[in-house]
Design brief:
With about 160 residues, the protein is α+β, with helices and mostly antiparallel strands. It has two domains: about 30 residues; about 110 residues, no CATH class. About 20% of the residues lie in helices and about 25% in strands. The strands form five sheets. Strands 6, 8, 9 and 10 form a four-stranded antiparallel β-sheet that branches. Strands 1-7 form a two-stranded parallel ribbon. A two-stranded antiparallel sheet has the order 2-3. The N and C termini lie far apart (about 75 Å).
């Protein structure tokens, strides 16, 4: 009798623990929080920077402020890939992350109010080839403290993006 009572108690405890786990997982999914960025130290830039889940450097464009999108045409989007999340998701992984609706309807992650992008020419984690890229504005690596200067900024070369 004692054995079956202990077994029943163990079963009830396991069931309660499993139920609690389901509630926690469901609550996490309901909040929509997903770690879409990480903060890492970039040895080349000597700074703490934001990177996407795949480790690629994240950038913002100085001219994209107050909901104004510059990077919205094919030419720009062929080089700069918006960091997007599902509608209603709340990005996580660093402080001061939020979202904004892009002209194409997608939800883009912002940092300190500026939309975030990866650069197509950054081929591996740690690359920051887009830092200082100039066209309609200047592309800068998203850092946790201040702007990172580049020694000789590359130029866009194909004109303005439009927008």
């Amino acid at each position: 009798m004692r054995r079956s009572f202990a077994r029943a108690r163990l079963f009830a405890f396991a069931l309660a623990a499993a139920s609690a786990l389901v509630v926690i997982v469901s609550a996490s999914a309901a909040t929509g929080q997903k770690p879409v960025v990480k903060v890492v130290t970039n040895a080349q830039l000597h700074a703490s920077i934001l990177v996407a889940r795949n480790g690629h450097t994240l950038y913002s464009l100085s001219a994209e402020k107050n909901g104004r999108f510059i990077c919205s045409d094919k030419a720009c989007l062929s080089l700069w890939k918006p960091l997007v999340v599902a509608r209603g998701a709340k990005p996580a992984g660093a402080a001061k992350l939020a979202t904004i609706r892009r002209p194409d309807g997608r939800t883009q992650v912002t940092y300190r109010g500026l939309p975030l992008y990866t650069f197509a020419e950054d081929l591996k984690p740690g690359d920051a080839k887009g830092n200082g890229f100039k066209d309609v504005g200047t592309w800068r690596v998203a850092t946790t403290a201040g702007a990172v200067k580049s020694p000789s900024p590359p130029s866009g070369g194909y004109g303005s993006y439009g927008g």
